[in-house]
Amino acid sequence: MLFDPSEIGSLRIKNRIIRSATYEKSADIDGFVTDRIIELYRILAKGGSGLIISGNALVHLSGYSAPMQLCIHKDHYIPGLSRLTEAVHKEQGRIFIQLVHGGRQCFPFLLGGRDPIAPSAVYDPSIRVMPKEMTNEQIWEIVYSFSSASRRARDASFDGIQIHGAHGYLVSSFLSPHTNRREDYWGGDEERRFHFIEEVYKAIRSEAGDGFPITIKINADDLIEGGLKIPEAVRIAKRLQYVGFDAIEVSGGMYESKVATVRKGIKSSEQEAYFKDHSRSIKEAVSIPVALVGGIRSRSVADMILKEGYADIVSLSRPLIREPDLPNKFAEGKEKADCISCNECMRFSKLDFVRCMQVAS
Ligand SMILES: Cc1cc2nc3c(=O)[nH]c(=O)nc-3n(C[C@H](O)[C@H](O)[C@H](O)COP(=O)(O)O)c2cc1C
Asked: What's the confidence (pLDDT) of residue 260?
């Protein structure tokens, strides 16, 4: 089943394994594609993932959340991004770009000392910053920055896009009752909290055209008191399908909830796939493909997720940092990823670029 083809919108994928978006810290200082990134993605494509989601790529400078992240907020990024897609396509791979605005989870030192922006001024204890509430004009500017970015993505020959709507970044913070306390078109109840992503979708669809796959990664649970919980996440998923999204990837957590998104020390199969009950609830509510990410380490667990209807596609991040060819190894009979979920690959400030610290570089 894991190696049965799947479809996302108009795109056929050779199997049911996605490389989940993984920030590489490998763009140059201005966010341009480097040879290191191209080689990383070429190896990933060769390694057998049916679809690669790029590391989060910046749509607007006010949302710069990670040094040396990919950028797509200006046309001059298109040639480098085209080299990246060309390298993946040469290996018969498929690649989406993940579009992000960091929202309240941006350190001011990355914003030239300015405060981050967010739907509401809700203090973020994890980065110790009070964000500025966005004006209506600022909100529309960011909506359109997502659509211009998607036009650039299409021009650079990406096979589709994924909006980063999870983990507490801007889109996620509009959906969450914890971070969206507005009382206007953009917030006040769950229908209005949905307006931001709905407007982003509509703007992207009109810019990128019909048939271009538009997908999203969402939180099924913010894992924080007062945050988004599964009943609302299920209703959000139904709305996402209704407006036209082609697939949903299910995750959870935000900076404030610490490492709940990227759980450490996964040793037993019971600890794997830690959002699987959430993804099942979402899968039961929609007919578009649902991908599940978080702690999947074994071939048998991946098969079980598909067979027992927890998700349509499995998505992996850390295991592919260590073994970019894990999908091929699974196909050849390997049962368990070598990744030990130590999270050393997440020590971004210490690492020159994202890599597995268990493997000699
Ligand atoms: C080094 C690193 C970078 C990540 N960067 C992103 C990112 O750019 N976008 C995103 O949605 N998730 C990102 N994640 C989260 C992963 O996509 C995934 O949701 C999480 O690691 C759990 O999956 P896993 O157990 O397969 O690693 C990152 C995770 C790691 C370890």
From this structure: 86
Residues with CB under 6 A from ligand 1: 20-23, 55-56, 98, 164, 166-167, 217, 251, 261-262, 293-296, 316-319, 345-346, 354
Put simply, whether the predicted model's pTM sits higher than 0.90 gets the answer yes
Note the pLDDT tens digit of each residue in 187-222: 999 999 999 999 999 999 999 999 999 999 999 999
Over residues 262-270, the mean pLDDT reads 95
Catalytic residue (one of 41, 64, 77, 169)? 169
Burial of 4 (0-12, 13-18, 19+ CB in 10 A): exposed
Q: Which domains does the chain have, with CATH numbers?
A: 6-346 (3.20.20.70)
- Average pLDDT of every residue of the chain: 97
Identify the CA nearest to 200 among candidates 230, 234, 169.
169
Beta strand 117-118 pairing with 95-100? unpaired
